[in-house]
Amino acid sequence: MQLCVVWSTNCIAFRCQTCAYSPYMTLYTQCFHEGDHEGHEFKMYRSAGGFCDCGDKNLLRETGFCPRHGLYDEPNPLPGLFAKLSNKLE
Ligand SMILES: [Zn+2]
Ligand SMILES: [Zn+2]
Ligand SMILES: [Zn+2]
Questions:
Q1: Broadest EC class (predicted)?
Q2: What pTM value is reported for the model?
Q3: Cross-strand bridge partners of residue 28
Q4: Tell me: the pLDDT tens digits for 33-70?
Q5: Which of 30, 34, 69, 75, CA to CA, is 20 to 30 A from 90?
Q6: Cα of 41 from ligand 3 centre, angstroms
Q7: In what order do the strands lie in the sheet with 11-16?
Q8: CA distances from 60 to 13, 16, 51 (A)
């Protein structure tokens, strides 16, 4: 997992109660908007500093990740599979 955004100035951050496992998780504005939190119970607040927890499976549901940090496209498993198959054929 890649650390998203770190901020140290007063900044608007979001906490989605529907997605969070931890009451202290924080989502940066951009990640919050890019993630799918429609109809969720969330709070907007002013944060004096912190970092975005987007992409951390221990803190929030994967469905709350934004497309940049969550639900990565898994590396394509097909080349390995084909290699195995062709080994069998030989
Ligand atoms: Zn994100
Ligand atoms: Zn959410
Ligand atoms: Zn983020």
A1: transferase
A2: 0.72
A3: 13
A4: 999 899 999 999 999 988 899 999 999 999 999 988 87
A5: 75
A6: 18
A7: 27-28, 11-16, 42-47
A8: 15, 9, 14
